[in-house]
Amino acid sequence: MTELVLLASFLIAFAIGSNDASNALSISIGAGVIKLKRAIFLFGILVFLGIWLNGNRVMETVGKNLIEIHSKTLGFSLLISAILIILSNWKKLPLSTHQIIIGSLIGNAFAEGSTINFISLLKILLSWIISPITALFMSFFLYRIVEKIFLKVALFKIERFLKIFLLISASLISYNTGANEVATVLGPLIYSGVYINFFLIFSVSSFLVFLGAYLLSYRVIETVGKGIVPLDPLSGFVAQISAGITLFSFTLLGMPISTTYCMIGAITGVGMTKDLRTVKLELIKKIILSWGLSLSLALFLSLIITKIVLKIL
Amino acid sequence: MLEKLIGGEKLEKRALEYIQNYLKIFISAQECLKTLLLTEDLERSYCIENLEREADSVRREIISTIYKGAFLPYIRPNLCTFIEITEKAFDFLKTCAFEFRYINKEFYKDIKDDVVRIASINVEMAEILYKAFQSLLKKDNLREKNLAIRICEKKIDELKLNLTEKIRQKEITNFWEGKNVSDFTEALAKISDIIEDASDYLYILDISLK
């Protein structure tokens, strides 16, 4: 069964690379700060460092504190997660990686009749709500502060500052992709009780994230960076650094949260500095629907499949 | 290491030096026209063509340095547009010098004072434009320079009105003579419009990243 857990975790890592690299890199690439190949290479290194240096808390929350892991059926639940994530990436469905994984694990626990730590679950659910709101307020106030500072600085100094800080904020998001997103995937595997070489697992999974980003992310990055998001470099920097700081804070607290939602919250915050009407209620409805759908779909499928597997085994 | 990663730091320095050089050539060309109009020494009219050629090669260097990777792509088009706007002023300077070679010197005597005053204000405006660009390098009051350029432009508008009134009172019997005077005064007065446009563009550039 270990092989199945490994396969599913690695598949999700690859899917994260292909889809979520755009969160970290699209603004910097769109702003022309760094070239695509160089950015993806840097992304891969930072993902590895993120898992290695700060991934432990999130891994502990997901793999140890949330449910009692059963290595026999865990592989099937994670495989469902992998299939759902790949399918949602392929079909462009608004399903979140975190919600799918947590949903699958809860479904597995229900089927196995094992204990679920509802306080941990509540903390995770709350962090999903609080994190985009935190990013929103942080970017709103940070934009106001930076805007005031920039009024006193010469144009070409601002330009140089933005170049460096866009790269730093992209690096922070990349680091958090490892420390939070990939850690959420690896948590159940690490705490499944099977003997594994952690360093090897971290290396292989970050290589797969890199591979996913290298092979499949360029279209998403170019579309988001140069097409869909018409962010000026200052707004882009503020949005990204706010999302990055929020993510890092929640990572330190061990909470598995979505980078995409933090970015949406931060971009909305920047938009609110211009006009309050930029807050799109439709988008908020979509996010809530996506949360509910991802979580319940993964939970339901995992519950059914685990029950079937338990009957067969 | 970070600078190496980002790259382009040297390119930016070079582009900024080129732009400053370009604006210095612009001031020299303005001064050259003023001396030509003041001394009526036709030999002087050729220095404007030479300076225009020099500015043209610097302009090409600026555009290619910018597109080699200097500055964020977000401000690249704005910088290039600023250069292209200023380039138009060189065209008018050239037209002015060219038309001056054929102007009726008797006729010119009556309008010389106004023409030289316009040329002097143009020199002043070019110098302010150079200082305005330098404000982008080290934070200085760009708005103040922008305002000074607008005031100069208003003065030139008034002088042009005065000049047109004077010309209208003269009897012109030859078509080519009339066209020559019209083209000359039109080109001379247009230079300040271009400088004003360039200054406005610098202001837009300054607020574009804020």
Largest sheet of chain B: none
Number of β-strand runs of chain B:
0
For this structure, what is the CATH class of chain B? Mainly Alpha
Strand content of chain B: under 5%
What this model shows, in words?
The complex is a heterodimer of chains A (313) and B (210). In chain A, 83% of the residues lie in helices and 0% in strands. Chain A has 313 residues and is mainly α. Chain A has one domain. At the A-B interface, helix 7 of A face helix 1, helix 2, helix 5 and helix 7 of B.
Question: Can you tag this structure with a few keywords?
Answer:
heterodimer; A: 313 residues; mainly alpha; 12 helices; 83% helix; B: 210 residues; Methane Monooxygenase Hydroxylase, Chain G, domain 1; 7 helices; 0% strand; DUF47 (chain B); Put_Phosphate_transp_reg (chain B); coiled coil (chain B)
Give a quick rundown of the structure:
Chain B: Keywords: Coiled coil. Chain A is an all-alpha fold.
Helix/strand layout:
The complex is a heterodimer of chains A (313) and B (210).
Chain A: H1 2-30, H2 36-54, H3 56-65, H4 71-90, H5 97-112, H6 118-150, H7 155-190, H8 198-216, H9 218-228, H10 233-252, H11 259-274, H12 281-312
Chain B: H1 2-6, H2 9-39, H3 45-67, H4 76-102, H5 105-137, H6 142-169, H7 175-208
Helix pairs in contact in B: 2-3, 2-4, 2-5, 3-4, 4-7, 5-6, 5-7, 6-7
